[in-house]
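Tokens for chain A. Residues wanted.
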């Protein structure tokens, strides 16, 4: 990852430039326990999934973020599921600073979104946690 690469965070939270996205708050996924990490991606597609699948009533939002500390590959999407890190997904224990919002992103088709929700529901039924801390 290069330091000039844009990084994104998908959510339903209504944030502004300068706000911090911090660990310790209720996760957007699963049982909504306190998140140990904050998640981000260098691909708009991964952030789009985050925005679409996050819990909450508001519209999905994608923010351009800057990490305030070190990043590590997201083990939920890397070697366990995909060799390497093709989704360019990362996590950090340190906050992410919102520096902008992507306004013109395109969501996945209703069929793709339903297929992903069905897949996540099946993982939940099998007792497979969506987020590994």
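Reply:
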């Amino acid at each position: 990852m290069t330091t000039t690469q844009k990084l994104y965070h998908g959510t339903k939270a209504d944030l502004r430039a300068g706000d911090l996205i911090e660990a310790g708050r209720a996760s957007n996924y699963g049982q909504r326990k306190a998140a140990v990490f904050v998640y981000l991606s260098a691909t708009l597609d991964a952030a789009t999934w985050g925005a679409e699948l996050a819990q909450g009533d508001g519209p999905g939002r994608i923010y351009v973020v800057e990490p305030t500390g070190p990043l590590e590959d997201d083990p939920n999407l890397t070697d366990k599921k995909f060799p390497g890190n093709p989704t360019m997904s990362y996590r950090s224990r340190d906050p992410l600073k919102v520096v902008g919002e992507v306004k013109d992103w395109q969501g996945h088709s209703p069929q793709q979104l339903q297929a992903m929700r069905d897949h996540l529901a099946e993982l939940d039924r099998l007792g497979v946690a969506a987020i590994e801390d």
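Residues 7-125 form a domain with the ADP-ribosylation fold fold (CATH 3.20.170.40). The helical segments are 44-53, 110-125.
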